[in-house]
Amino acid sequence: MTTAAVSATPVEGLWTIDDVSAFLRVPTATLYQWRHRHIGPPAFKVGRHLRYDPAAVRAWLVAGEA
């Protein structure tokens, strides 16, 4: 039996849309609109929920795409 390799570095938890909304200080409706228009920070679905990688949100912000 083989096990999947686990990263030795700690992984920061994923953010919910409410977390990103609070971080960027924009309404959640704005994040949904951005996602629909493909202009917001990258998100992915876990089941039926949106989740964001905090590092990707910060990188998106720093890149000036906001």
TrEMBL record:
Signal peptide annotation: none
A Pfam family it matches: HTH_17
Helix-turn-helix domain boundaries: 16-61
Highest taxon in the source lineage: Bacteria
Protein's name in the database: Helix-turn-helix domain-containing protein
InterPro entries per UniProt: DNA-bd_dom_put_sf, HTH_17, WH-like_DNA-bd_sf
Organism classification: Bacteria, Bacillati, Actinomycetota, Actinomycetes, Micromonosporales
